C-alpha cells in the first residue's frame, strides 16, 4: 500500500500543511522536498503542468495536485487507519462543504488583511471575522469539526492558525477576542502530534511575510 | 443540468428567481452562499454543485459517476476543480469583456480550452467511455457556450481550434440523459441575444 511517497512543498504554505497533517495522521513515511517558488524545480513543473503550484503529492511516481484532493486521496488509499472523512454520505457532503468554504474565503481574505491598508483592510478584517464566526458556529460544542474526532474540516482549517499571528499584527486586531471558541479549538488541535509537527512557527511566518512585503514593494 | 438524471432518480424541481427574488426556502437551506443549486434529500440540504454530484454518486450506487480507483477519482476531482475554478471564470470573462479587454480575456479562455483539449486524451468523455464528474462540471462548455457564441458572435470553441473538445461537446449535449435535462436552446438564445444587445448599447 505504501509504495514511494514524495511531497513537493513550501514550508509556509497552509495548503502544504494540510497534506503534511494527513500523511502524519496516517503515519505514512514520505520524502519531503522543499521548493523554491522563485525557481521551481523541473519535477514540480512536470508533475503539475496545469497550475505549477505546490503542494504536489507524488505516489509511486503519479502526481496528485490540490491539497483537499490530496487529503481525500490519502484518506481513501490508507483507509485502514485514522479516517478523516465520516462514512455517512450526508456528513461527508457537509465536511466537504465547509472545507470548500475555507478554500473559497479564508486564504484570500487573510491575504488582504496583510497586504492592504485603510478601508480595504478594514473591509477584509470584517469579512474575515464573519467567516471565522460562521465556522465557530459550525463547530458548536464539539471538540473538533469532525465531531468527537479530528477530521477533514479540521485538517482544512487548522494550518491557518499559524498565520493568525501575522494577520493580527498587520491588521492590529485580536482573533481570540472575536472568536475564542475557534482559538480554543486550534490549541486543542495543536496538542496532536500530527498538527504540531506540520504547522510552521508563527513568528517565522511573520518574518517571512515581512520579507515578502519588502520584496513585493508593499509597505 | 441535473446529474440526478443519470441514475434515474425521481425528484421535484423548484425554479428560483435568483436575480430578483430568492425564496425563503433557498435562504433557509443555503444561508452561507444563498445560491442555487441546492439539493434537498429527506429535508436535508446539500449545496455546491460538485459536492451535490458526489453526494448523489455515494448515495445511489447505479451508474457510477466517479471512478472507483482512488487515483482516477483524484484526477476526476482535479479536472472538475480546474473547470470550475479556472475555465468557468475565464470563459465568462471573455464573453463579458468590453472591447478593449477582449483580446486578452479571449486568450486566457483559449488557454483553458487548450488544456481541456489535451486532458481529453482523445477519449469520448473526460470520464472515458461514460460521463464522469468532469463532464458534468464542463457541461456549460458543451451547452451554454455554444448558445452564447451564437448570440454574441465571439468564437471560442470551434472544430478547427479544438477538434476533440468540439466533438466531446456534441457527444455530451446529444447524450439522451443530458439532452432531457437541458433547458430549451432557442429560449436561452433569445435571452442572451437581448442581453448582449442591451450591453452593446450601454457601451
TrEMBL record, chain A:
<comment type="similarity">
    <text>Belongs to the GST superfamily. Tau family.</text>
</comment>
<dbReference type="Pfam" id="PF13410">
    <property type="entry name" value="GST_C_2"/>
</dbReference>
<keyword id="KW-0216">Detoxification</keyword>
<dbReference type="InterPro" id="IPR036249">
    <property type="entry name" value="Thioredoxin-like_sf"/>
</dbReference>
<keyword id="KW-0963">Cytoplasm</keyword>
<protein>
    <recommendedName>
        <fullName>Glutathione S-transferase</fullName>
        <ecNumber>2.5.1.18</ecNumber>
    </recommendedName>
</protein>
<feature type="domain" description="GST C-terminal">
    <location>
        <begin position="88"/>
        <end position="208"/>
    </location>
</feature>
<dbReference type="InterPro" id="IPR010987">
    <property type="entry name" value="Glutathione-S-Trfase_C-like"/>
</dbReference>
<dbReference type="Pfam" id="PF02798">
    <property type="entry name" value="GST_N"/>
</dbReference>
<comment type="function">
    <text>Is involved in the conjugation of reduced glutathione to a wide number of exogenous and endogenous hydrophobic electrophiles.</text>
</comment>
<feature type="domain" description="GST N-terminal">
    <location>
        <begin position="3"/>
        <end position="82"/>
    </location>
</feature>
<dbReference type="InterPro" id="IPR040079">
    <property type="entry name" value="Glutathione_S-Trfase"/>
</dbReference>
<dbReference type="InterPro" id="IPR045074">
    <property type="entry name" value="GST_C_Tau"/>
</dbReference>
<dbReference type="InterPro" id="IPR045073">
    <property type="entry name" value="Omega/Tau-like"/>
</dbReference>
<dbReference type="InterPro" id="IPR004045">
    <property type="entry name" value="Glutathione_S-Trfase_N"/>
</dbReference>
<keyword id="KW-0808">Transferase</keyword>
<dbReference type="InterPro" id="IPR036282">
    <property type="entry name" value="Glutathione-S-Trfase_C_sf"/>
</dbReference>
Automatic annotation (TrEMBL), chain B:
<keyword id="KW-0216">Detoxification</keyword>
<dbReference type="Pfam" id="PF02798">
    <property type="entry name" value="GST_N"/>
</dbReference>
<dbReference type="InterPro" id="IPR036249">
    <property type="entry name" value="Thioredoxin-like_sf"/>
</dbReference>
<dbReference type="InterPro" id="IPR010987">
    <property type="entry name" value="Glutathione-S-Trfase_C-like"/>
</dbReference>
<feature type="domain" description="GST C-terminal">
    <location>
        <begin position="69"/>
        <end position="196"/>
    </location>
</feature>
<dbReference type="InterPro" id="IPR036282">
    <property type="entry name" value="Glutathione-S-Trfase_C_sf"/>
</dbReference>
<dbReference type="InterPro" id="IPR045074">
    <property type="entry name" value="GST_C_Tau"/>
</dbReference>
<dbReference type="InterPro" id="IPR004046">
    <property type="entry name" value="GST_C"/>
</dbReference>
<protein>
    <recommendedName>
        <fullName>glutathione transferase</fullName>
        <ecNumber>2.5.1.18</ecNumber>
    </recommendedName>
</protein>
<dbReference type="Pfam" id="PF00043">
    <property type="entry name" value="GST_C"/>
</dbReference>
<dbReference type="InterPro" id="IPR004045">
    <property type="entry name" value="Glutathione_S-Trfase_N"/>
</dbReference>
<dbReference type="InterPro" id="IPR045073">
    <property type="entry name" value="Omega/Tau-like"/>
</dbReference>
<dbReference type="InterPro" id="IPR040079">
    <property type="entry name" value="Glutathione_S-Trfase"/>
</dbReference>
<feature type="domain" description="GST N-terminal">
    <location>
        <begin position="1"/>
        <end position="64"/>
    </location>
</feature>
<keyword id="KW-0808">Transferase</keyword>
<comment type="similarity">
    <text>Belongs to the GST superfamily. Tau family.</text>
</comment>
Amino acid at each position: 500500500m505504501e509504495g514511494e511517497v514524495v511531497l513537493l512543498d513550501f514550508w509556509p504554505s497552509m495548503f502544504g500543511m494540510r497534506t503534511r497533517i494527513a500523511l502524519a495522521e496516517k503515519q505514512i513515511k514520505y520524502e519531503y522536498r522543499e521548493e523554491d517558488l522563485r525557481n521551481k524545480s523541473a519535477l514540480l513543473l512536470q508533475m503539475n503542468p496545469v497550475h505549477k503550484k505546490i503542494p504536489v503529492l507524488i505516489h509511486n511516481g503519479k502526481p496528485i495536485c490540490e491539497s483537499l484532493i490530496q487529503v481525500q486521496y490519502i484518506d481513501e488509499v490508507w483507509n485502514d487507519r485514522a479516517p478523516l472523512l465520516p462514512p455517512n454520505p450526508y456528513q461527508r457532503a457537509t465536511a466537504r462543504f465547509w472545507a470548500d468554504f475555507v478554500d473559497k474565503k479564508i486564504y484570500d481574505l487573510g491575504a488582504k488583511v496583510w497586504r492592504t491598508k485603510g478601508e480595504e483592510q478594514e473591509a477584509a478584517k470584517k469579512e474575515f471575522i464573519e467567516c471565522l464566526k460562521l465556522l465557530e458556529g459550525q463547530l458548536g460544542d464539539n471538540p473538533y469539526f469532525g465531531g468527537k474526532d479530528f477530521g477533514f474540516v479540521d485538517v482544512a482549517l487548522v494550518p491557518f492558525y499559524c498565520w493568525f499571528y501575522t494577520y493580527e499584527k498587520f491588521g492590529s486586531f485580536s482573533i481570540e477576542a472575536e472568536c475564542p471558541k475557534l482559538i480554543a479549538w486550534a490549541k486543542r488541535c495543536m496538542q496532536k502530534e500530527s498538527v504540531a509537527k506540520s504547522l510552521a512557527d508563527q513568528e517565522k511566518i511573520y518574518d517571512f511575510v515581512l520579507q515578502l512585503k519588502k520584496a513585493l514593494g508593499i509597505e | 443540468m441535473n446529474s440526478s438524471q443519470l441514475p434515474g432518480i425521481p425528484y421535484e424541481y423548484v425554479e428560483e428567481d435568483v436575480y430578483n427574488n430568492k425564496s425563503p426556502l433557498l435562504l433557509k437551506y443555503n444561508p452561507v452562499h444563498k445560491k442555487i443549486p441546492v439539493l434537498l434529500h429527506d429535508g436535508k440540504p446539500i449545496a455546491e454543485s460538485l459536492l451535490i454530484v458526489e453526494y448523489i454518486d455515494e448515495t445511489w450506487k447505479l451508474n457510477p459517476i466517479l471512478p472507483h480507483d482512488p487515483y482516477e477519482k483524484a484526477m476526476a476531482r482535479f479536472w472538475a476543480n480546474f473547470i470550475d475554478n479556472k475555465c468557468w471564470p475565464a470563459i465568462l470573462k471573455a464573453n463579458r469583456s468590453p472591447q478593449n479587454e477582449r483580446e486578452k480575456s479571449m486568450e486566457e479562455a483559449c488557454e483553458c480550452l487548450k488544456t481541456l483539449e489535451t486532458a481529453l486524451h482523445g477519449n469520448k468523455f473526460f470520464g472515458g467511455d461514460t460521463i464522469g464528474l468532469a463532464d458534468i462540471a464542463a457541461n456549460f462548455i458543451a451547452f451554454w457556450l455554444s448558445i452564447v457564441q451564437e448570440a454574441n458572435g465571439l468564437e471560442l470553441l470551434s472544430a478547427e481550434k479544438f477538434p476533440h473538445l468540439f466533438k466531446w461537446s456534441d457527444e455530451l449535449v446529444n447524450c439522451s440523459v443530458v439532452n432531457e435535462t437541458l433547458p430549451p436552446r432557442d429560449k436561452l438564445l433569445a435571452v442572451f441575444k437581448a442581453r448582449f444587445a442591451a450591453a452593446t448599447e450601454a457601451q
